[in-house]
Design a protein that fits this description.
Structural class: alpha/beta
Keywords: Mitochondrion, Transit peptide, Tricarboxylic acid cycle
GO molecular function: magnesium ion binding; NAD binding; oxidoreductase activity, acting on the CH-OH group of donors, NAD or NADP as acceptor
Radius of gyration: 20 Å
Mean pLDDT: 89
Largest sheet: 11 strands, mixed
GO biological process, one term: isocitrate metabolic process
Main location: mitochondrion
Shape: globular
Bound molecules: adenosine-5'-diphosphate, magnesium ion
Organism: Steinernema hermaphroditum
Number of helices: 10
Length: about 375
């Protein structure tokens, strides 16, 4: 939003979006003796160490959450662990997850990440890309929510075959039902989060039927049911160019699966890279919290150098989804102070601090802001 100056960017806005606005999106099921149970899937790369940091923070702050950990990673080519993980997600209704490496050289290894989102029908992927003061970037004052259809557009799900040798057919499959629900989610999200404009990203000039349907559904819904939200359509190539040249013009971007994947990564890059942004996945029943760009960060694993911000913000999103708003604010503020007031930065954003230094600082900040003082 062009009018939003950096000065207005309060620490609270840093991590503030509410994913559970759609009436069908239920609060999670598992709660015993006042405590929530959340499935934890550490994944590959830096995932396991990031989960340890999250557990340490939660235990220090006495957040009422217990984690049920299920190991699921690329070393395990057997589908049984995937079924265990899915059962745990269904039982608890909510999960936090590291990324699982997808092996290119194993044709039979279906992406665990895609499979989990598909089986839990987590059709909306939401990223909040917002500039953080003190993080060096080319552009300032960015505040974009990216909402991506997360389950179809099968060119993304690997629906492809070799018709005759040397000829591959890759199928993109979209349905009115799924376009309608992601469009509905987006406008409801805009209304609930007081956002003003939705930009639908498409390639309907070429893909007249598939992207044409996407555009038509979004446009009709905007006009008929959300006249108070500004709606615009933008072709994906132009949207990419606009995003890197004048990103402040965007408020919410609504996107089909593949464009959403690429545009989200561009947007994360604009606000500082893969270590900073969290990604929410929600459907009508379940919710899953992970990092926005879904990297494994394998080269950084075990070195105590990865930026923990994206994972901690995933934990903040999760707390807010659980209805633990005061706890979410407390953790978000502690992280924000570490990044901006104490100005502790890891190498990916030009600093030289270790991961554990940031975690210690977050814990110090939590210690000096007791729960009772939370009166925002
Ligand atoms: P992919 O999973 O797509 O193979 P990588 O895991 O290799 O991607 O991550 C892409 C890049 O992002 C790498 O340069 C990696 O170092 C960097 N990166 C990913 N996560 C983080 C993080 N948390 N902190 C710092 N850098 C990160
Ligand atoms: Mg990787």
């Amino acid at each position: 939003m062009a009018s939003k100056s950096l000065a207005l960017l309060t620490r609270r806005h840093f991590s503030s979006i509410r994913p559970h606005i759609y009436p069908g999106t239920r609060l999670p099921h598992a709660k015993y003796g006042g405590r929530h149970t959340v499935t934890m899937l550490p994944g590959d790369g830096i995932g396991p160490e990031m989960m340890e940091h999250i557990k340490r923070i939660f235990s220090f702050a006495h957040f009422p959450v217990d984690f049920e950990t299920v190991e699921l990673n690329s070393k395990d080519l057997n589908a049984t662990s995937l079924e265990f993980a899915l059962m745990a997600c269904e039982r608890n209704g909510i999960a936090i997850k590291g990324n699982i490496e997808t092996k290119f050289d194993h044709p039979d290894f279906i992406s665990r990440n895609v499979e989990i989102r598909r089986r839990l029908d987590l059709y909306a992927n939401i990223l909040h890309c917002v500039s953080i003061p003190t993080v060096p970037t080319r552009h300032k004052g960015i505040d974009i929510v990216l909402i991506r259809e997360n389950t179809e557009g099968r060119e993304y799900s690997g629906l492809e075959h070799e018709t005759i040798k040397g000829v591959i057919e890759s199928i993109k499959l979209v349905t009115r039902r799924n376009i309608e629900r992601i469009a509905r989610y987006t406008f409801e999200f805009a209304a609930a989060n007081n956002r003003k404009k939705v930009t639908a990203v498409h390639k309907a000039n070429i893909q007249k039927l598939g992207d044409g349907l996407f555009l038509q559904v979004a446009r009709d819904m905007a006009k008929a049911e959300y006249p108070y939200i500004e709606f615009e359509a933008m072709i994906v190539d132009n949207a990419s160019m606009q995003l890197v040249s004048r990103p402040q013009q965007f408020d919410i971007m609504l996107m089909p699966n593949l464009y959403g994947n690429i545009i989200s990564n561009i947007a994360c890059g604009l606000v500082g890279g893969p270590g900073l942004v969290s990604g929410i996945n929600v459907g009508d029943k379940y919710a899953l919290f992970e990092t926005g760009t879904r990297n494994t960060g394998t080269a950084l694993a075990g070195k105590n150098v990865a930026n923990p911000t994206a994972f901690i913000r995933a934990a903040v999103d999760m707390l807010r989804y659980l209805g633990l708003d005061a706890d979410a604010h407390r953790l978000s503020d502690a992280l924000f102070a570490t990044l901006t007031e104490q100005c502790l930065h890891t190498a990916d954003i030009g600093g030289s601090e270790k991961t554990s230094t940031l975690i210690d600082s977050i814990i110090d900040n939590l210690a000096t802001t007791p729960k009772e003082a939370e009166a925002h």
